[in-house]
Amino acid sequence: MKTARIPATGQEFTIGKIVCLARNYAEHARELGNETPAAPVLFMKPASSVIADGETVRIPAYSQECHYEVELAVLIGSRAQAVSAEEAMACVAGYGVAIDMTLRDVQNQLKAKGLPWDVAKGFDSACPLSDFVPATAVPDPHNLNLRLAVNGELRQNGSSADMIHRVPGIISHVSGIFTLEPGDIILTGTPAGVGQVLAGDVMAAEISGVGNLRIAVR
Ligand code: MG
Questions:
Q1: pLDDT digit string (tens) for 120-171?
Q2: pTM of the predicted model as reported, rounded to 2 decimal places
Q3: Which of 98, 126, 66 is nearest to 187 (CA)?
Q4: Considering only CA atoms, which of 120, 129, 131, 145 is closest in space to residue 67?
Q5: Share of the chain above pLDDT 90, in %
Q6: How far is the CA of 73 from the centre of ligand 1 (A)?
Q7: How many Å lie between the centroid of ligand 1 and the Cα of residue 49?
């Protein structure tokens, strides 16, 4: 069992499903040669893929190209089924920092065949995740600076202002497909600048006012 914590309130949630958006920042969609979607593109990571700050990403032997994607993580605190965008924010317990680790070579092979991405996105250690801050500590989730450095060199530096689909609309859309339960997490997509990490690298991810992660790769 994996746990999501909000240290400021002492709350702990058993992590349920992790619903992720792809292509939610136009510049990142362009850098991978993808169209910008009208509706959110969704996939999931299993809770077993979560690792905490200070832990290590282990690149599976079946991949030669593992990428980082820094993302704002939204922790669901109360059940949401087909909620409206207006109702959605009441379901948010907190915000955290995630890295959506992606085996880009494997994902590209699967995409080319029209196959699901699970083995490229859901392997053990594919979801480094920070502790959460309470939702009340983040007055505007669309005014946050997201940064990721590899070995001290800044690689991603974006703003959540550039999300195509915003948090209330995302929760409304997702909750119409998958009932959201306390402990579920939504990863809201990554800004531009994604790239490869190799064994021995150290990633440092930070979202202003939300938290940070230090994650080694092997
Ligand atoms: Mg992503």
A1: 999 999 999 999 999 999 999 999 999 999 999 999 999 999 999 999 999 9
A2: 0.97
A3: 98
A4: 120
A5: 93
A6: 11
A7: 14
Cβ 197 vs Cβ 215: under 8 Å: no
Please provide the average confidence, as pLDDT, over all residues in the chain: 97
CA of 82 from ligand 1 middle (Å) equals 24
Rounded Cα distance, 211 and 132, in Å:
7
CA of 121 to the centre of ligand 1 (A): 9
> How close is the Cα of 69 to the center of ligand 1, in Å?
5
Looking at the domain 3-217, which fold is it?
A: Fumarylacetoacetate hydrolase; domain 2 (3.90.850)
For residue 44, how far is its CA from the centre of ligand 1 (angstroms)?
10
**Sequence ranges of the domains in the chain:** 3-217
Report CA(187)–ligand 1 centroid distance (Å).
Answer: 7
The pair phi, psi for residue 91, each rounded to 5°, is -90, -10
Question: Residue 6 burial (CB < 10 Å; 0-12/13-18/19+)?
Answer: buried
User: 97 phi and psi, to 5 degrees?
Assistant: -110, 130
**Average pLDDT over every residue of 94-112:** 98
Answer yes or no: are the C-beta atoms of 179 and 81 closer than 8 Å.
Answer: yes
**Cα 126 to middle of ligand 1, angstroms:** 11
> Residue 62: its pLDDT value, please?
98
